[in-house]
Amino acid sequence: MWAKAANSSAQVKIATVLLTLIPLYYFSYRLISRSNKSHPTTKASKILNRTKWQQQWLETDLLQPWDPLPIQMKCNETKWISNLVFDLVNANGGVGNIRAEILDFLFYAIESGASIILPSMAIRRDDDLSKVVGAEEADFSYMFDELWFLEAMRKACPQMRIYESAEELGDGWKKEEQTYDPRVPWSRKDLSQGQWKQQTADWLAGRKITADVSAVVAIEHTMWETNCRGERPAFRRALGMVLHVRPDVRRYAAIAMFNMAATERLDLLPTDRIHRKAFYGAHLRTEADTIAAGWLWPPSDAEIGLDFTLQTSYYMQAAVTHGLSIIFAASGNASEVERFKQVAAANRPPLTVLSKWDLLSEAEGDALQAMHWDQQALVDLEILKRCSVFGGVAKSSFSFLIAVARTTYMEEEDEAIQDPWSARHRDKMVAFENKLNKIWGRNQLNEERIPKGAWP
Fold it and tell me: Is the distance from CB of 182 to CB of 453 less than 8 angstroms?
């Protein structure tokens, strides 16, 4: 009898334990499954240590490998003037502007057979980004890898001499007083290259600048004013690749990406040129200078600016559509990023918003904070170039720099099925769209120049 009762009591205890554990096991399994679905295990970080992972990420770029041959062919076709030197003046803006201005300038120099003075640029004031007139000048390495550029151009175009400064030229050089503006006449971009070459030759001859006179000519900065679409695709790509982001800043991007993989349990391979099915890249452009420039004014037929609410809603919709739960937000306005985090967390489904500052240690963040605003943005540029899907705004050269480079990658990988500019005819709120990139809003100037003037 006692044995029977004991057995009955044991059975009750076992049943109670099972009834308690089974629901706990079920809900734990659901939680783990959901977590793994959102953030796959980081195979790459298990295989590689931090240093090796970052090194491999830095050795990989969106567009690679670089081939100097197309530039060599162009330079071999050019008639070079050994005593003519071009000097870029008034280059200003963020990296989207500066990069485009330097590449236009390089193209003008190659077309004209001129050597160059290594370009410099205006430093925008952190407290007022809209003020560039009379700004302090910075040298080429402020944004770009000078050693890489000099070595690349030496290989690709040895006919072009590159001087560190005008002082390096020495005595006997005439400095032309008038700045040459390649956009005059303003229809220049609609003329053939042959006509433009003749126009430049006539301008030089009119100022007694000939093969017998050593002269330095100041060249006014232009942005997307060349018809680079009329050039061989391989040449466009090769010239665009001579500008690399300065390596010390690029290193912070590699650190941030490794930390994102580790903390969010993302399977990011450092050798992937685009990190597929990992995170959405958003260019949140709502800083004070956008207001000063009128970017957020009410829309017109050709201009549509996007405020914080519109930008973030578009980005969140796109992230959800592509099945991405993490958004990397690039912005120079920390308070707006924090606001974005709150909005995204309240979204259904909830989304995680991260910035570069979330993915760097305190010491790394302090070191980056010591740099200028536009240098900090270079970290965002390197990360966004390789995000899974990218979203930006039409009034921003930074957004278009990224979208054009990623579209060039797609063309090389036979992924560019549709004309990204055709989106304008389907949706008045969209300027550019393909499966890896979408640019919202409208801007007449950018939409006129970029299709044929932007360098990859």
Answer: no
Q: Count other C-beta atoms under 10 Å from residue 207's C-beta.
A: 15
Residue 421 has pLDDT above 70, yes or no: yes
Phi, psi of 214, rounded to the nearest 5 degrees: -85, 120
The full length of the chain comes to 456
Q: Are strands 215-220 and 174-175 parallel, antiparallel or unpaired?
A: parallel
What local confidence, expressed as pLDDT, does residue 131 receive? 67
Long-range contacts of 430-433 (CB under 8 A, 24+ apart): 431/394, 432/394, 432/400, 432/403
Retrieve residue 167's tokens. Answer: 């002082």
283 shares its domain with 345: yes
In this predicted model, what pLDDT tens digit does every residue of 314-329 receive, in sequence order?
Answer: 999 999 999 999 999 9
For 348-372, the pLDDT digits (tens) are 999 999 999 999 999 999 999 999 9
Instruction: Report DSSP letters for 366-393, one per residue.
Output: HHHHTS-HHHHHHHHHHHHTTSSEEEEE
Binning the chain into helix, strand and coil, the percentages to the nearest 5 are 50, 10, 35
Shared domain check, 276 and 176:
no
Answer yes or no: is pLDDT of 34 > 50: no
Most confident of 128-142, 153-167, 406-420: 153-167
241: three-class secondary structure by DSSP: coil
Number of H-type helices and E-type strands within the chain: 17, 13
For residue 35, name the pLDDT band (cuts at 50, 70, 90). very low
Say which CATH number the domain at 411 has: 3.40.50.11350
Q: What is the distance of C-alpha 104 from the center of its chain? A: 17
For residue 142, what is the DSSP state? Answer: G
- 294: Cα within 13 Å, side-chain hemisphere: 5
Reported as a pLDDT band with limits 50, 70 and 90, residue 261 is: very high
Residue 392 lies in a domain: yes
CA dist 434 and 403 (Å) reads 9
Instruction: Give the residue numbers spanning the domain of 286.
Output: 245-453
